[in-house]
Design goal:
Chain B: This is Electron transfer flavoprotein subunit alpha. The complex is a heterodimer of chains A (323) and B (245). Chain A has 323 residues and is α/β, with parallel strands linked by helices. Helix content of chain A is 28%, strand content 27%. Chain B contains six helices and 13 strands. Chain B has 245 residues and is α/β, with parallel strands linked by helices. The relative contact order of chain B is 0.18. The chains are: A alpha/beta (323), B alpha/beta (245).
Chain lengths: 323, 245
């Protein structure tokens, strides 16, 4: 069995989460005593493709094709399934990104492969059996899912695996798949970027605020703290329901589940639905004026105080530390 | 328009999740089950599209008799008819096969699911159904507009959105923003009792994966308090102790 990893590009370049997924796939390939092939679809330049070698891909299939310049999940799934057959891969690793969620099930269905999405660590491997620990109940639990099929697909959560540089080199090989015309029914009309800053699902640091901020006009200090930290901004459900912030920032059981290294919660009481969405964070800081706020029970560091006083001071202290 | 909405029966969002002593299944005692919140968005969108004699809304659920209260709620909200596939919803692969098998010869223009269920969080069903039926699927749709035989769909991406034009039939997994959730009114609740709810038996589906054990997250250690006047100390702890900045 060999391992194939799909390396999603963002306008021709690779984000950190791609190198995470390659590092993860390389660790899997090592435990299975096999090699790792990466597949890149869309127009990515040669130095970026070569950089995948430094994280353990020994071979890169490069699909540079104008028809496939932009992500169409149906067509990309056909390409990845064909590549898996071409290289004889039994295990396919994909990022659990928004695009990955639309892609991984279609790849798995084509290959009759079991799919474990939302993987949070390396699986247990016992002969042909692979057991993947994945998030369930929106962060309230984990499900150890055994993939019993011959071919298997794993979708890895962002920030779940560290980068591992191998210093290796990859052989880049142009790949020319045959794609059914039917796969191109969907057409992209427009791509709208609402932020050129850090994006929430794969952010390493998240600064999140709740109703304690009293109104949308007070978000300036949250954005300043986020800028100082290189963080993404987020909010609680009441805040997005009230229209103070967009739904895409809503973290919680019915919003985005995040897994950053650092989650800073400001003026959020900590309802069970919100806590579910942040339980995978490595370190949690809570700032709240109410010492009884339930969020403090799951915090690593807590400050009892008025957000309007504490946050600007914290931003200044971060700036001073960063110099 | 002929619309199929797939609904899942899930624990209420306020539920504390625990498992049976052998860690293989959810401990359902004391848990209230609801229509998956994302599926409610799908249902509300479908009802809005079909309103005014513009079409019919069928809901499908894979579950045993215990899920009928959830199905009746969907009928009370405004769906015209319902189908229950009489089986335990083993996993997304199984569920998607039941939906695809039911839908394959019914001529649905639009099949909607929630973008994920809040219990197993697979976000898989929409794309599986699309693949099984050989039609386009959009996961995490933020906005859906129908114009004749095509849809304009906005899809969430990291840091923005993509605007797609897609021919019908189409499968979409709906997220917040697609429609305001509708609440059943008294007339809806009364009429739900007499709306058709068919029960069909499942098709067999090969097992490709199984959950062998559930775990709950390790509790965190006690909180370290930092005085509101000493934020520099927090910066120091985050840098030197937690090593996250």
């Amino acid at each position: 069995m060999s391992v194939l990893v799909y390396t999603e590009n963002n306008n021709g370049s690779f984000k950190k989460s791609v190198y995470e997924v390659v590092s993860y796939a390389k660790a899997l390939a090592d435990s299975l005593n096999t090699s790792l092939t990466a597949i890149s679809i869309g127009n990515v330049d040669q130095p970026a493709l070569a950089s995948l070698g430094n994280y353990g891909a020994s071979r890169v299939l490069d699909v540079s094709n104008d028809q496939l310049k932009q992500f169409i999940n149906q067509a990309y799934a056909s390409v990845i399934a064909e590549a898996a057959n071409y290289v004889g891969a039994d295990l396919i690793v994909i990022s659990n990104s928004f695009s990955g969620k639309g892609l991984a099930p279609r790849v798995a269905a084509k290959l009759q492969a079991g799919l474990a999405d939302g993987a949070v660590e390396l699986p247990q491997i016992d002969g042909d059996k692979i057991t993947v620990k994945k998030t369930a109940f929106s962060g309230k639990a984990f499900a150890l899912t055994e993939l019993t099929s011959a071919k298997k697909v794993i979708a890895l959560n962002p920030n779940a695996f560290e980068l591992r540089e191998t210093g290796g080199n990859a052989e880049i090989e142009p790949f020319h798949p045959t794609i059914p015309n039917n796969d191109f029914a969907t057409a992209i009309q427009d791509i709208v970027r609402t932020t050129d800053k850090v994006t929430l699902p794969d952010a390493e640091i998240v600064v999140s605020a709740g109703r304690g901020l009293k109104g949308p006009e007070n978000w300036g200090m949250i954005e300043e703290l986020a800028d100082a930290l290189g963080a993404a901004t987020a909010c609680s459900k009441p805040v997005s329901d009230a229209g103070w912030r967009p739904h895409s920032e809503h973290v919680g059981q019915t919003g985005i589940t995040v897994s950053p290294n650092l989650y800073i919660a400001i003026g959020i009481s900590g309802a069970i639905q919100h806590l579910a969405g942040v339980s995978a964070s490595k370190t949690i800081v809570v700032i709240n004026k109410d010492p009884e706020a339930p969020f403090f029970k799951v915090a690593d560091y807590g400050i009892v105080g008025d957000a309007f006083e504490v946050v600007p001071k914290l931003t200044a202290a971060i700036k001073a530390y960063k110099g | 328009m002929n619309i199929l909405v797939c609904i899942s029966n899930v624990p209420d969002t306020t539920s504390k999740i625990t498992f049976t002593s052998d860690h293989t299944s959810l401990n359902t005692s004391g848990i209230q089950f609801i229509v998956n919140p994302y599926d409610e968005i799908a249902l509300s969108k479908a009802i809005g599209l079909a309103e005014g004699g513009n079409g019919t809304v069928t809901v499908i659920n894979i579950g045993e008799t215990g899920t009928e209260a959830t199905i009746r709620k969907a009928l009370a909200t405004g769906a015209d008819q319902a189908v229950r596939v009489n089986a335990v919803p083993r996993d997304a692969w199984f569920v998607a096969h039941q939906i695809a098998n039911y839908a394959k010869d019914k001529g649905f223009d639009l099949i909607l699911t929630g973008r994920e269920s809040i219990d197993y969080n697979g976000a898989q069903v929409a794309a599986f159904v699309g693949e099984l039926l050989g039609i386009p699927s959009i996961s995490t749709a933020k906005k859906i507009d129908i114009d004749g035989n095509a849809a304009t769909v906005e899809r969430e991406i990291e840091g923005g959105k993509e605007v797609l034009s897609v021919p019908l039939p189409l499968v979409a997994g709906t997220a917040e923003g697609v429609a305001e959730p509708r609440i059943p009114n008294m007339r809806g609740i009364m009429s739900a009792r007499t709306k058709p709810l068919d029960v069909i038996e499942p098709v067999e589906v090969p097992v490709l994966s199984k959950v062998v054990r559930y775990e709950t997250p390790e509790p965190r250690g006690a909180v370290t308090w930092v005085d509101a006047g000493e934020v520099e100390k927090l910066v120091d702890l985050l840098h030197n102790k937690a090593k996250v900045i």
